[in-house]
Specification:
This protein is mostly helical. The chain has 13 helices and no strands.
């Protein structure tokens, strides 16, 4: 019998590790790669130093009026003074504690989700959170003042539109994905027609129809909340894209999984919900999160139907005669906020991919 001697582990050569080795392999591996790297460095040198000088070195942070903003630097005093409108819109100042309480509940909910692993409990907790959040923000229960939706705005409205669109469109999209994959002609035809019709028009058209055209079909005297109409339109629009993403995940599942589920006597819904759908969603996580990020960015389109989201509040506040000429600071602030939210969603997506990655396990 052959005898093999165990060789002790040795460290990699010093010239094959470290920052210099990484730069040589990734930034200067070829003449074209070197030229692109130098071009990127030149662009960064051209953009970043002036931006740092404008946003930090020459900027003004203290004060409460534009009189404190002298020179060529950014006037972050504008952001500080208008911060409440950026966050809450026209929500009454005395009731803003309710919005803050909803945000605190959300942080607590995220913490509980890490402790509680049972999906059923998580579902009821999430449902309860949305009910409590609606009661707190709108009011009308337990002695809370009613705050009409036309006073909702800023980042609060952006998050509400995105959250409702994501949560409500997800189950609808899954049902349409099942419908499109169904062998029943009528159900498949309805699903295909809906998905292709919605995907054939831009979101701005859906919002316009829900705000302007749809009320024309209501009987005289019947009104429909504008924000609710926008939420329905966004949900139906997003559901079509979710359906296509989930359908792609369903098609990636090997036929053996379907046959194995049939062999043990599972019904259609047991097979799809307990066996097929979890695997399909795991495959579709990157595309799903990408779609949710796109929806979060598209919430700015609600401006065209008169809803003042975060971006609209920048335009509104910068038209104040006392703060004319400070749009740039507002747009930079909005850019940073959107980047934080979108990047957080992307990071969470990667953590989900690692958590549900069952390859080689």
């Amino acid at each position: 019998m052959a005898v093999y001697n165990k060789i002790s582990q040795r460290e990699a050569p010093s010239n094959s590790k470290g920052a210099i080795h990484w730069m040589r392999d990734n930034l200067f591996s070829s003449p074209l790669n070197t030229a692109l790297t130098m071009l990127g460095i030149a662009i960064l040198v051209w953009i970043i130093p002036p931006f740092i000088k404008w946003s930090l070195i020459d900027a003004h942070f203290a004060g409460d009026s534009r009189a404190q903003c002298t020179g060529d630097g950014a006037c972050w005093v504008f952001i500080k003074v208008k911060m409440s409108m950026f966050m809450y819109g026209f929500y009454p100042e005395v009731d803003r504690w309710r919005v803050n309480l909803v945000a605190i509940f959300f942080v607590v909910l995220i913490g509980l989700f890490k402790l509680i692993k049972k999906d059923t409990v998580r579902f009821f907790m999430l449902t309860g959170y949305f009910i409590v959040a609606f009661i707190l923000i709108r009011g009308g229960f337990f002695g809370l003042n009613v705050v009409d939706t036309n006073k909702w705005g800023g980042l609060m409205l952006t998050i509400i539109v995105a959250a409702v669109g994501i949560v409500c469109s997800f189950p609808i999209g899954i049902l349409f994905a099942f419908g499109r994959s169904s062998k029943l002609p009528i159900i498949k035809s309805i699903s295909v027609t809906y998905i292709e019709f919605i995907r054939g028009v831009p979101l701005i058209t859906i919002l316009f129809m829900s705000s302007v055209i749809l009320p024309l079909f209501f009987p005289e005297g019947i009104t429909f909340n504008k924000l609710l109409r926008a939420l329905i339109g966004i949900t139906l629009f997003q559901a079509a894209y979710i359906a296509e993403i989930v359908r792609g995940g369903l098609q990636s599942i090997p036929s053996g999984q379907y046959e194995a589920a049939d062999a043990i006597g599972l019904s259609y819904w047991q097979k799809m919900i307990l066996v097929i759908l979890p695997q399909a969603l795991k495959v579709a996580i990157p595309n799903l999160v990408g779609s949710f990020i796109a929806l979060f960015q598209d919430t700015t389109l609600v401006l065209i139907i008169g809803l003042f989201d975060l971006l609209a509040m920048v335009q509104l506040t910068s038209s104040d005669s006392k703060w004319l000429g400070f749009e740039t600071e507002g747009y930079v602030f909005v850019t940073i906020l959107f980047w934080v939210f979108c990047y957080s969603m992307s990071v969470y997506s990667r953590s989900l991919e690692k958590r549900f990655n069952t390859n080689n396990k």
